[in-house]
Amino acid sequence: MTTDIERRVGNLLDDSQGKGREHRVSSTASVEDGKQFPTSVNNIKPTSKLESDSAKEKLSAELKQKQEAMKGSDGLKAMLAFREQLPAFNVKSGFIKAMTENQVLVVSGETGCGKTTQLPQFILEEEISKLRGADCRIICTQPRRISAISVAARISSERGENLGETVGYQIRLEAKQSAQTRLLFCTTGVLLRQLVQDPQLTGVSHLLVDEIHERGMNEDFLLIILRNLLPQRPDLRLILMSATINADLFSKYFGNAPTLHIPGKTFAVAEFFLEDVLEKTRYNIKSEFENFEGNSRRRRRQQESKKDPLSELFEDVDIDSQYRGYSSSTRKSLEAWSGTQLDLSLVESTIEYICRHEGNGAILVFLTGWDDISKLLDKVKANNYLGDSGKFLVLPLHGSMPTINQREIFDRPPPGKRKIVLATNIAESSITVDDVVYVIDCGKAKETSYDALNKLACLLPSWISKASAHQRRGRAGRVQPGVCYRLYPKIIHDAMLQYQLPEILRTPLQELCLHIKSLQLGTVGSFLAQALQPPDPLAVQNAIELLKTIGALDDMEELTPLGRHLCTLPLDPNIGKMLLMGSIFQCLNPALTIAAALAHRDPFILPINRKEEANDAKKSFAGDSCSDHVALLKAFEGWKDAKRNGAERSFCWDNFLSPVTLQMMDDMRMQFLDLLSDIGFVNKSRGPSAYNQYSQDLEMVCAVLCAGLYPNVVQCKRRGKRTAFYTKEVGKVDIHPGSVNAGVHIFPLPYMVYSEKVKTTSIYIRDSTNISDYALLLFGGNLVPTNTGDGIEMLGGYLHFSASKSVLDLIKKLRGELDKLFNRKIEEPGFDINTEGKGVVAAAVELLHSQVVHH
DNA sequence: GAGCACTGC
């Protein structure tokens, strides 16, 4: 018997059939192989081209004349005197000589040596004075946006120019440069995008890649490309800049390129390890297992089965002989110390010790995360001595806390008041608190890793590297000599890794693999095998399999038409697909918003004392959608409305939202829209209404999410009064406590899609959207008939759907039509779905609104 | 019964 819904859907489908058949999907893709799409990213080439040689000569002469005139000006004399004090100044001629004689040069230099501001400037001055000013194009990459801007600004002022004249910058969605610009600072990501359009880096004379010691994925990726490019560009000069003395790795990678070391210039920072800190503070460490019977170290070892190698190493140390010169209370404390748990009371005592016994100056405490910071803040505020808010200004510093944009962090406190900053890794390189004199280092940081076997991203506190420890210590010596208190034994420090594992070995690789394909760099595997430290082949295989699953790569590992579109979007491939689906299925605005939020960062702030209220605000945005993605969408829409009414500030404050993040999302939406327009998916002249027919239809929005996020699917299984969640890869997972779906026991729909699954203390689904069977059947993975023929399988047989034959047939038919529509649009982006696909889409919407499939 | 390192196109 045909149900009402079947009849309605069937009618809608039949209406659309006639038209659909006349326009079979063409087998020839209109997107040609290898064709590179234009993108709206500003070109990093100069905006005007100098046609004739005589014009060039004239310009070169002008540049030289101007530079020499500036050198003699009074305003620049003081600046010059300052520059001459920098250690980099002493290597100027050696640097220029080495750079002239070698194609590749590796420069290492500690903080304060001036390599970032001086070396690019030396090149610029040299080129101009040699009358090559018109021809030179110097690019210097930075890993972070802020440093690209601030370094460019600094050099402009050192040259007595305005930013954007000969020195400029370009970061995503923001640039300051002109036809005169000869030295450009950009983020590594901007250069990598540029390489898609200009693989030869035409016109670039010198390229400096800064901060390569950080071993970020973009920088490691860029180095592979450059090593391949150099033989084709013999005139290009490459300068690699690293903060650590160990430049050998990079030198070897580039055929034993010469290295140049510049000594640093910072104040001395004294260093104390746990044993010394215990002597000073007289703090007694209590064993975590004091309550257990037979508190022996052996016993502890049995209890702590999951100890890390470093903490374990310390278990075997003979405390009494190793620390003979130390007091018995210190030895007792060392005996009780456990590397696995951070002792916040010890941190508190160390802060108190500094405040009571040491001179003025801010204290910077490195902790691992939100929880540590929050708990320590409570402790300090309750402390008899430190709790005096007239004497102490205690500030949390965390990427998701509201204090992140407050001036207080950087400002000098009033006399008699001491600033104490409780920070994560963010204070290691991203945020600099200048007046820090004391650093307390807990020795750990939360670090991502990638478990390729379980296809699982992990975020676990782990011991930092010696290089990080050195960097943290250096934060105390920016304005005067400082002191660093390390809350771990020297033995642990000596056993730390020299460097952190490079990011390319710690993260999923799907976006990188897509990028490699878009640059036509051969097979992914052979290309990545050329990396400084090649990733695990299994991690590469996982990435390729995912790209095949979502249809970005074909069986031959070549880009499909969909894959080529995804290459143009600066997004994770899943999110990019969601955006394309949104534009095809009339949910453009929600797709833009959700894509921007997922690609950038969560706009919800995590305040310290008002967690519950913040959670409630997020939940109220979600309404009854059971979706974190809808919460993001509604929050953004609310902000846009509030902004129109001039109520932005109070709206953000009341709803625990970050205005900075929301603004960035808004800008990113514009960029995505431009890119969709470039690839023909959106015709801007038709106005937003042409692409948003279903934008208010949450079922359709969730279906689009499903289309993009697949195969990130979770099964919701009723377990009595609660629901348990399962994934194909790792089995049982939990909803992250910060999700609007946390604490919900019963869900209206049987599945969730998610954008991120991370193992911390448990395996958590961070943001989820509850979806129906229909959403999965119409927009999820391919439908595979079961062996018995009475059902449908998906996700390699992990998901199973059964229904009456008539319903199954209807679904298969509708799905087939939707796929045709999708493929046609992918291959022919200008195709107007409204002319021929309206009926199919309407049928899909009709089905999504009914939820009656049996499991 | 609990939890949210950090960059970037």
UniProtKB/TrEMBL annotation:
Keywords: ATP-binding, Helicase, Hydrolase, Nucleotide-binding, RNA-binding. Pfam families: DEAD, HA2_C, Helicase_C, OB_NTP_bind, RNA_hel_CTD, WHD_HA2. Residues 96-263 form the Helicase ATP-binding domain. This is RNA helicase. It is an enzyme of class 3 (hydrolase). GO terms for cellular component: nucleus. It comes from Cucumis melo. The lineage of its organism: Eukaryota, Viridiplantae, Streptophyta, Embryophyta, Tracheophyta. It catalyses: ATP + H2O = ADP + phosphate + H(+). Residues 341-520 form the Helicase C-terminal domain. Residues 37-46 have a biased composition (Polar residues). PANTHER family: ATP-DEPENDENT DNA_RNA HELICASE DHX36, ATP-DEPENDENT RNA HELICASE. Transmembrane segments: none annotated. It comes from the Eukaryota. Gene3D superfamilies: 1.20.120.1080, P-loop containing nucleotide triphosphate hydrolases. The keyword Hydrolase applies. Its EC number is 3.6.4.13. Belongs to the DExH box helicase family. CDD domains: DEXHc_RHA-like, SF2_C_RHA. One of its GO terms (molecular function) is ATP binding. Residues 16-25 have a biased composition (Basic and acidic residues). Residues 1-55 are annotated as: Disordered.
